[in-house]
Amino acid sequence: MPEPRWNQLATESNSYLRDIYTWSKNINMLQYEQNQDWNRAYVYIFYANHALAGIGAITPAAGEQAAWNNVKGSAHFFRAFHYYALAQQYAYPYAQTDHPNGLPLRLDADATLKVQRSSVHETYRQMLDDALKSAELLPAETKRANYIRPGKVAAYALAAKIYLAMEDYEKAAQYAGLCLGLRGDLVDFNTLGADAPAKLYDYAFEADFGVSNPEVLYYAVSDNGYAMALNNIFKDRAEFHPDLLALYEPGDIRPKVYFRPYVDFEGYRFPVFKGSYATYGNFSGLAVDEIYLLRAECFARLNQPDKALADLNKLLQNRIEPAYFTPVTEQDTELLLKRIFLERRKEMVFRGTRWEDLRRLNKELRFAQTLVREIGGNRYELPPNDPRYTGPSRSLK
Length: 397
Fold this sequence. Notes:
Helix content is 44%, strand content 6%. Helix 6 packs antiparallel against helix 7 (152-165) and helix 12 runs antiparallel to helix 13. By secondary structure, the protein is mainly α. The two termini are 35 Å apart.
C-alpha cells in the first residue's frame, strides 16, 4: 500500500484496515466490529442449523429421498464451509497439541442459547463431521447447472482441505482423489488467447457463476468490502508486490490471464487482477487446481514423489506454453514440497488461501516465513506463529 493511501485511511470509517495492514496489536475494535467476516459466516451457519432442524422433522415420502438428502447434505456442507473460513481467521491454527481458542460452535437453531468457545480440536472435529456427512448425502453429478449449490465433489474437496489443515495427509489425499475422480478437468490456459491484444483488458473467465469453467467445484466470493477499500482499483490504493510478479517465469501464461494494466487519467499503469473465477468478485470457493496441488503436497509428504509429480505436472502443462514446458522431475521430497508451495503461491492469487497456508506452514521451521511491510518510514514484522495470525473475535453473545 503506498503511503498516500495509508494516510488517507486514517480519516475514513475503515481506518481499522491500517491496523490490520501492519498486524497491529491494538486494532481499533469499534471499527473492526463493522467488518462482516464474523457475522456473515454465523448468519449462514444460523440458516444451516434451521435447515437441519426442519429437515430432521420431515419423513420423506416415496420419491423424495434424493431431495431430502440434498437439503440435509447442503446444510451440513454450508455449516462446515463457513466454520472452516471462520477458523482460518479466528481460531488458532490446528496442531497436535490442542488449544482452547477454537470457535463457538452453534449447532442448534435456537439463537438464544449461550455457547462458549470450543477448543481447536473440537472445532475441526465438528467441521470434519459436517463435511463427511455432506459427502454421504449430496449427489455425485459430474456436471451441475448451479455451482452455488454444493455437490458431492465439493464435499470431498472441503473434507480434503480440512484433513490437510489437520495434518492427516493420507486422508487428505484420499478425499482429494475422490473429488478428482468425479471432476478432474483443468482449463488449458493455452486456449484462452491471453496473448491477443484485444484480450489484454478482458476478464479471463465467463461471468456465469462457474457453469462454463470445468475447474469450479463450488462457487463462492469473498466480501467485496475489502476490494473497495484495498483492492487494485486506483493508483492510490494497493498494488501487487513486485516479488509476487517476479515469481512467474517465461512461458507461464498465468500473468497474462491473471493481470492487466490499468490506465487512469494520468496514464499511470500497474497490474490489476482480472483472473478471478468469479469475475464480479474475488473467487473464494473450491476449484480443481487447488485440489491437484493439495494432493501433490500430500503425496510428497507421504514420500510418494512420482504421484506428486504427476499431479503437479498435470497442472503446469495447462498453465505453461508448450514450447516452455518441461516436466518437473525433482525426486527430493523436501525440494519438491517447496516447488509445490511455490506453485500454490502463483496459482491461487486472491483466493483467500495464502493466509491459511502461512498459518499451517509456519509450524514447520523449514517452511516458516517472517512477513515484512515498510510504510511511512516504519518497518512492521509478523514473525511465524505470532498470536496476531489469529484475529480478535467478535462478541460470543
